[in-house]
Structures are given as C-alpha cells and as structure tokens.
Amino acid sequence: MTHENPSRPLVGEDPSMKRVLRIVDKVAPTDSSCLILGESGTGKELVARAIHERGNRRERPLVPINCGAIPENLLESELFGHVKGAFTGASASRQGRFELAEGGTIFLDEIGEMSPTLQVKLLRVLQERCFEPVGGTRTVHVDVRVVAATNRDLEAEVSEGRFREDLYYRLNVVEIQLPPLRARRSDIPRLIEFFNERLARTRRRSVAGFTDDAMTCLAAYPWPGNVRELENIVERLSVFCCDEVVDAEDLPPKILKRGGGNDEVPVDLPEEGLDLRQLLSTLEEKLIRQALERTNWNKNQAAALLQMNRTTLVEKLKKRGMLNPDE
Ligand SMILES: Nc1ncnc2c1ncn2[C@@H]1O[C@H](COP(=O)(O)OP(=O)(O)OP(=O)(O)O)[C@@H](O)[C@H]1O
Ligand SMILES: [Mg+2]
C-alpha cells in the first residue's frame, strides 16, 4: 500500500506498517491529539504530515517545531510568542508557533526533550486552549490540533518522573508506534525501489537494479538509522553505480559484512562513547529474536528462556512491531 499523499507518500506493506496507515486514516479527520513514537528515521515526521494533510485542517498551516533543538528560554517564546520588551532583545512583539498554526496543526517534534516548566505551560494549552505570550498579560485563545513525536520511551520517562503524566495522557489520545525498519524487513525492497524511482525522476540518476546477493545483504542489515539510512544509501548508490546493476561489493562495508558482525555488542566503552539506550535496545531485540527463533515463536517458552513474564515479552514485541496486528 502506498499512501497517495500528494507530496510525500508513505511506503509500507508490511502488516505492522499497514496497521500504522490504518490508524493514520482513522485519526486524520478527527481533532484528536496524536503521539507518534519510534526510533530515529522511522518516519515520524512523515506520519505527522500525513495526519495533517488527510485531515480537515489541511487548508490551514502545519507548523513544526523541534523542541529538542531550541534552548529552553527561547522555546517558550517560540511556542507562545512574546510582547515587546519581554526580555533583552525583544524589540517588537512576535507571534509564537501556536498562533501561527491557528486553525491548523502544530507538530511538536522531540517532545520528550521539553523542560518541566514548559511541560506545565503546554498542558494548560491542551486543557484550556489558551496561553499568555512571554511578558504579556493578554490571554490568547487558539484552535490548534496537536501532534507530537519523540524517539524516547515516553512511558519510561513518565515513570522515572522526567515527563509529566497528565501531559503524557493529554498528548497520547491516539498513540502511533512506528516499527523500526529491521522489524519490517519485507518493506526493504519496496522502499529501495521507491527511493530509486524517485531519484530517477527528480535527479535523473538511479541504479539499474540489484543482484540477489546485494539484495540479501540489504535485507539482512539491521538498519540502526532506519528508513533515513536506507534512503541515504540508495542515493549514494545512485551516484556511484548510476545505471548499473548493484552487486554486493558495491555496498558500503558495514552492509556487506554478513553473519551478524555488524551489530556486535562492544563490551568496552569506545573512545568516542556510545548511545547506551540504543545499544541496550538493539541487544534486547537480538536476544528476544533468538529466544523466539529457538522456541519456534512459542511466546511462553521464549519468555521462560529470557526469565520474564509472557505479558512483558508480548508488550516488548508490540512496542517493536514484532507482533501481527491481530495477535
Ligand atoms: N514509510 C516511508 N515511506 C517513504 N519514505 C519514508 C518512510 N518513512 C520514512 N521515510 C523517509 O525517511 C526519512 C526520515 O523520515 P522522518 O524524518 O519522518 O523520520 P523521523 O522518525 O522523524 O526521524 P527523527 O527521529 O530522526 O526525526 C525522510 O526522508 C522520509 O521521507
Ligand atoms: Mg523527525
């Protein structure tokens, strides 16, 4: 199924992606807040756009803001605007993103990075649909749909006291969990084809095809950077193997490396440090997969092998999109 969004289609036919696309269709025409979860590069922004463009607010703006990229003191005025003289340098009053999104949708990207103070202010907007610009006393009322995204485990952030529970529930009216690419490998060939065809159209540069060997390597690689990483590789190949059939040797070494060497867990902390959260998540997934394969996908036995409850295992599988939608 290719979601024929006019500008940026969402490619995905794996059952886990079909489920996502069904939720997008259901939720788009409502005004419900959505929380999009998923690792980096899984398509969270694309899904946010699809929700807006398929909804009733599509004629109005979609205003994105990356809450992780803006320092806290600036973020408040970015979101809510400020009055003249509110702080040094505020020589004129300025509208915030909420006002700019009036009638449309605001996309709060990397919401997990928001400071506790701003979380309180955001909660009020979600509850009362109003706020005061920085330094101002006038209350501004807005009609804005809120779509938020994060690659953090927000539920864990809540239980560890870093993210407000009340805000979490306000945002999470509809939760959309994007599966990592390695949990929907059947989409890899069609994503490659999609990106290759798009490059042929837009850049007049594409590859003629892939040998079976090359495709096997691409399908087996764990794709820690998900769809974004895949998109970059296809673009790189379109440059170096333009109009050629790509063979395994043409692939970057990390992809060519077979037999699991590419997601080996380093035991020593590398010089440059490492992303512990990502690493533990990869390790967990690897062991879960091994337990399932060893037990022929018998979840009771696999859970026993991992010394965890069956329900805990099923939760983890759901989170990773490793379950069939009707399971
Ligand atoms: N299902 C898909 N079909 C087509 N293109 C996709 C799909 N998913 C992701 N992409 C493409 O992959 C790239 C990354 O997607 P996107 O920016 O939406 O990811 P993200 O989850 O927001 O990542 P991050 O957490 O790093 O911000 C984009 O260029 C996007 O167009
Ligand atoms: Mg993003």
Structure, explained:
- The chain is an alpha/beta fold and 327 residues long.
- It has 3 domains: 2-179, Rossmann fold; 182-261, Helicase, Ruva Protein, domain 3 (Orthogonal Bundle); 275-319, Homeodomain-like (Arc Repressor Mutant, subunit A).
- It has 14 helices and 11 strands.
- The protein has helices spanning 15-27, 44-53, 72-80, 97-100, 116-128, 154-159, 165-171, 188-203, 212-220, 226-240, 253-256, 276-294, 299-305, 310-319, and strands at 2-3, 10-11, 34-37, 62-66, 105-109, 130-131, 140-141, 145-150, 174-177, 209-210, 245-246.
- The strands form 4 sheets. A 5-stranded parallel β-sheet has the order 4-5-8-3-9. Strands 1-2 form a two-stranded antiparallel ribbon.
- Residues 44-45, 109 line the site of magnesium ion.
Provide the CATH top-level class of the largest domain.
Answer: Alpha Beta
What share of the residues lie within helices? 40-55%
Principal-axis shape: globular
**Alpha carbon gyration radius:** 22 Å
Strand tally is 11
Bound molecules: adenosine-5'-triphosphate, magnesium ion
* Main sheet: strands, sense, barrel: 5 strands, parallel
